[in-house]
Amino acid sequence: MMDILMRFSGQLLAGAGLTLQLTAIAALLACALALPLAIARCSERGLLRWPIRLFVSFFRGTPLLAQLFLVYYGSGQFRAELSQLGLWWFFRDPYYCALLTFVLNSTAYQVEILRGGLRAVPYGQIEAGVAMGLSRFNQYRTIILPNAYRIAFPALGNEIILLLKGSAVVSVITLFDVMGQTRRIFSQTFDLSVYLWAALLYLLMTSAFVWLWHRLELGLTRHQRARQAPSTATSLASKRVSAGVSP
Amino acid sequence: MDWLTYLSFGDAGWGDELLQGLGVTLALALATLPVGLLLGLLVAALALFGARPARALALAFSTTLRGLPELLTLFIIYHGVGMGLNALLRWYNPAAGYLELSPFIAGVLALGLVFAAYSSEVWRGAWQALDGGQREAGQAMGLRRLTIFRVIELPQLLRLALPGLGNLWINLLKDTALVSVIALSDLMRMANIAVGTTKKPFLFFLVVCLAYWGVCLLCECLLGRMERRANRGYRSGGAAA
After folding, report:
1. What is the pTM assigned to this prediction?
2. A to B CB pairs, distance under 8 Å
3. What is the pLDDT of residues B93-141, one digit of tens each?
4. What is the ipTM of this complex?
5. Which CATH number fits domain B3-230: 1.10.3720.10, 1.10.760.10, 3.40.720.10, 3.55.50.30?
6. Nearest residue on chain A to B211, judged by CA atoms?
7. Domains and CATH numbers, chain A
8. CA distances from B106 to A171, A188, B96, B118 (A)
9. Which of A10, A5, A16 is closest to A164 using CA atoms?
10. Among A242, B10, B81, B104, which is least packed, fewest CB within 10 Å?
């Protein structure tokens, strides 16, 4: 059990590096893409709303593995065209394909989460901004977005955890993340304990993230707690539940 | 050959193979559902009413399985249970040959455990959202404990848990694709095989995606109806209707 860890800890940690890297880059890019899409999704114009709805529905309604195969293997069908466009280097590389798939997938989920956040902003606050003569841009900057992100924050954390766990599918397209390294080590040693070490590694990553996200959430909501100082204990407990991993 | 020929039924096309794969996918999801639901209910009951160690165990179970990638859980079950079973068999009869755990059963076990971990949280939340006054009303009417559970608590539990369970069902449907990695002949794997011979990956994986999408949309529609039916008699600001 321990000797497996001693022998392969370097590989497992390298795998964890790739897992974290893929998750972080995809989550950040998706976050940047999701904001304009979510705002457009909430707009009155149907012309903008429909394509986004379709995009979100497709990526939420199909397995990540199938999406990954569609991008990575599917692009092979258009190799000639992609080479002509000078894009083949991108689609040939499993790393970029995985990244692209994760960005699209996570964007779809984040749009839906942000939409909920945007819709939950109390209307009175927006009206107050209008009454103060704020421009549309400043309404978003100072009132709508801070509120929306605060409301959406726990759900966004859950989505990033789902992405971290989902990233294990890249092992199927020959990338060596934690899962990929684990499968390689298992095929060499047939020692089950490597799976348990991998499980521990994933649990460490997810619980570290839950802890971090919870700290950030406390920071974002500090103004809401200051007023009800005596009942901090109970509000903390309820926050902890909301920051859990449940979908 | 154009794409319609590729997808046609019979010897030339892959339509019937894909449909067969879809059948396996749906069978896997349907077989997993009762396992996950009942195990989840059991874990939730332990977490709510169990003795202290049982409670800790239930919590550890759901936290661990919700923190692991489904693919990893699947591999642990597939190889772990397989090896354990063989060790047991060897101990019982040293001359026994190697027994291969069927990918379908491994899939049901692994996805059932994951579903149980998530659904235990849903059940627990639903139980905690029940209005205690209703139980007291039942007691005041002199109903027995079991009757209170059957006619008052259970229907409301189902109503409160339905949206969460519906989401989990959709997730389960999508997670079945992972079982193709351990060589279950589901929709995903059939497409892989078809791609191997036809060299038309985009076409087949697009069809696979569309099939999953269609099933998910259909389920969402059905779940919406079930929720409306479960919420009949409740008036609320549009959320329930």
Report:
1. 0.89
2. 125
3. 887 777 778 999 999 999 999 999 999 999 999 999 988 888 899 999 9
4. 0.89
5. 1.10.3720.10
6. A62
7. 2-225+232-242 (1.10.3720.10)
8. 19, 22, 21, 19
9. A16
10. B10
